[in-house]
Amino acid sequence: MNRLFTLLAHWPLPLLHGIGALLGWLVYGLSPSYRRRLQAHARAAGLNARQVRQAVAHAGKMVGELPWLWGRPQHEALGATVQWRHPEVVEAALAEGRGLLLLTPHLGCFEVTAQAYAERFGAVKPITALYRPAKQAWLAEMMKGSRNRPGMQTSPATLAGVRHMLRALKKGETVGLLPDQVPPEGMGAWAPFFGRSAYTMTMAARLVSQTRCAVVLLRGERLDATQRQQLGCDYLVHAERVSPEVEAVLAGGDAAESAAAVNRLMEHQIMQAPEQYLWGYNRYKAPRAEILTSATPGEAA
Question: Is the pLDDT of residue 137 over 60?
Fold first, then answer.
């Protein structure tokens, strides 16, 4: 599989996206449970039939672009592949010197956001991104090696990884989280998410409360063929500062209130490009029993 990823990493992104879109429809057609879940979640959020169809393809594109994102040589920059929208938001947050927490939903190309940050800002303020190791040994090894790049390092979701994030924020560095996934039991709180109660991680709030870091929303928009031709890039990275009022809620220490605030932030981000969200993810499942230790995965990004 590593060889296949390496081979596909050299293919053009539009081709990988095309193959990915076909894969998305294949999975959608062959898995009734996935199909029902994607439709139910998307319709509950107000998506129309056209947006649901687009979401099916975008879920596949997310998989199709992974070889390029993970298998690209470490020295090869994103360059013109990515353009920023409002990078001054990140610059201003970093200038405050109190650490920066980037919150990104599973929307569009969320993998490219950390790489784009590292390429533009990592030499001054490196980023640490927390992730949950894959169960497959080959994939876990690939994730570990491919995600570490100049200005960027990843840390597994263990107690040691959480401590690493706290140290990074206290040094004024940057941490990236994807807070819209179900954490283990005891590591979250129930809060509304598109009208339904969802078990929501409280790690983002704990990081803010313990470090008083700044918070910025980051999302990676995947462009279609027309947009690519007009803008000359494949992705747009959008940055938006979280208001002081919301930062205060996250720092307040109330699990339910902070979880609800995080979900509202994620809903806001998702509805900027709802057809690119992973609606097929089982967001409303019950958390599994799991203890966060130095050897056991916990909350992840």
Answer: yes
Question: Residue for token digits 């687009």?
Answer: 54
pLDDT, tens digit, for every residue of 73-84? 878 889 899 999
pLDDT digits (tens, 9 = 90+) for 179-209: 998 988 888 999 999 999 999 999 999 999 9
What are the residue boundaries of the structural domains of the chain, listed by start? 76-276
Residue 299: predicted pLDDT: 37
CA 50 to chain centroid, in Å, comes to: 24
